[in-house]
UniProtKB/TrEMBL annotation:
<dbReference type="InterPro" id="IPR002912">
    <property type="entry name" value="ACT_dom"/>
</dbReference>
<feature type="domain" description="ACT">
    <location>
        <begin position="198"/>
        <end position="275"/>
    </location>
</feature>
<dbReference type="InterPro" id="IPR045865">
    <property type="entry name" value="ACT-like_dom_sf"/>
</dbReference>
<dbReference type="InterPro" id="IPR018528">
    <property type="entry name" value="Preph_deHydtase_CS"/>
</dbReference>
<dbReference type="Pfam" id="PF00800">
    <property type="entry name" value="PDT"/>
</dbReference>
<dbReference type="InterPro" id="IPR001086">
    <property type="entry name" value="Preph_deHydtase"/>
</dbReference>
<keyword id="KW-0456">Lyase</keyword>
<keyword id="KW-0584">Phenylalanine biosynthesis</keyword>
<dbReference type="InterPro" id="IPR008242">
    <property type="entry name" value="Chor_mutase/pphenate_deHydtase"/>
</dbReference>
<dbReference type="GO" id="GO:0004664">
    <property type="term" value="F:prephenate dehydratase activity"/>
</dbReference>
<dbReference type="Pfam" id="PF01842">
    <property type="entry name" value="ACT"/>
</dbReference>
<keyword id="KW-0057">Aromatic amino acid biosynthesis</keyword>
<protein>
    <recommendedName>
        <fullName>Prephenate dehydratase</fullName>
        <ecNumber>4.2.1.51</ecNumber>
    </recommendedName>
</protein>
<keyword id="KW-0028">Amino-acid biosynthesis</keyword>
<feature type="domain" description="Prephenate dehydratase">
    <location>
        <begin position="4"/>
        <end position="187"/>
    </location>
</feature>
<comment type="pathway">
    <text>Amino-acid biosynthesis; L-phenylalanine biosynthesis; phenylpyruvate from prephenate: step 1/1.</text>
</comment>
């Protein structure tokens, strides 16, 4: 039986490219076949996994230029029991796509907020007067182009090819070394691997609470590769903390750190241990056949 892999759609998003990469890797490693299903938002992608509608979900978590994808962090915290199976890092090259005959005719640029931010310098230089319009996904932006020839969209070259739309400039990201880390999540226990992710809330108004929690890791010589905060959304100034550790949760030092963390955190969520999937150039370019083997849940 095929597994279903949820991702942000419509078809042609970077998240779909990551899901295809993972699906090809899975078939290669285990013989397991999968089918991709697209969802209109990151939150709905993770909800589909949390309620069992999809077996796996692929979501962007962090970009090398813009930092954390806050929607993913918030949804990871909100839905219970999500476990990370893999992380995969994909290069991102953005294209300006439009039916305008000339760049100078573009009045509005549509895209996902991460893509707009990653191209801000290019937009300021070449289209300083254009209105920036955020969309749920890069490919949602393409829907505006055919009826409005003064509209531009930022999405991948692959998306332009899929929808048969003209590229006016590419790459337009402000820095050429642009990568996004995606997470593959499911309700199954995580597969184990070199990285562990967790998040916690701390009891309110305890001076030095975060410093004490970080000391739990420092005193055991545990290397943290990322620490991010998000508002709890309960009250101003209250935060959740997301931590990535470069070690497996079965490592005795991590086990004892987690046991101590439990004593001092309000809520602690452990997203599991997982490997980071190396990407090679062969599995970055899904074929037309892969793209047709998909379902849409929008
Ligand atoms: O909208 C998309 O295509 C996504 O997958 C989200 C995103 C946007 C910009 C960079 C990486 C991921």
């Amino acid at each position: 039986m095929s597994l279903s892999i949820a991702h942000l759609g419509p078809t042609g998003t970077y998240a779909e490219a990551a899901a295809l990469t993972y699906s090809q890797w899975l078939t290669q490693e285990t013989g397991q076949q999968s089918i991709l299903c697209s969802y209109p938002s990151i939150a709905q992608t993770l909800e589909a996994v949390a309620n069992g509608q999809a077996s796996l979900g692929v979501v962007p978590i962090e970009n090398s230029l813009e930092g954390s994808v806050t929607m993913t962090m918030d949804a990871l915290w909100r839905f219970d029991n999500l476990q990370i199976q893999q992380a995969l890092i994909l290069p991102i090259a953005h294209a300006l796509i439009s039916c305008a005959s000339d760049l100078a005719l573009i009045r509005a640029i549509y895209s996902h907020p991460q893509a707009l931010a990653q191209c801000q310098g290019w937009i300021d230089k070449f289209l300083p007067l254009a209105q920036l319009v955020p969309t749920n996904a890069t490919t949602e932006a393409l829907q505006h182009l055919e009826q409005d020839r003064t509209a531009g969209a930022i999405a991948s070259q692959r998306a332009a090819q899929l929808y048969n739309l003209p590229i006016l400039a590419c790459p337009i990201n402000d820095y050429p070394d642009n990568h996004t880390r995606f997470l593959v999540v499911s309700l199954n226990p995580s597969s184990g691997g070199s990285h562990t992710s967790l998040a916690f809330s701390v009891p309110a108004n305890i001076p030095g609470a975060l410093a004490k929690l970080l000391q739990i890791f420092a005193s055991r010589n545990i290397n943290l590769s990322r620490i991010e905060s998000r508002p709890t959304k309960r009250s101003l100034g209250e935060y959740l903390f997301f931590i990535d550790i470069e070690a497996n949760a079965n490592d005795p030092a991590i086990k004892s750190a987690i046991a101590e963390l439990k004593l001092h955190t309000e809520t602690l969520k452990i997203f599991g241990s997982y490997p980071v999937l190396p990407i090679n150039s062969k599995n970055q370019n899904p074929t037309e056949k892969d793209i047709l083997a998909q379902e849409t849940f929008e």
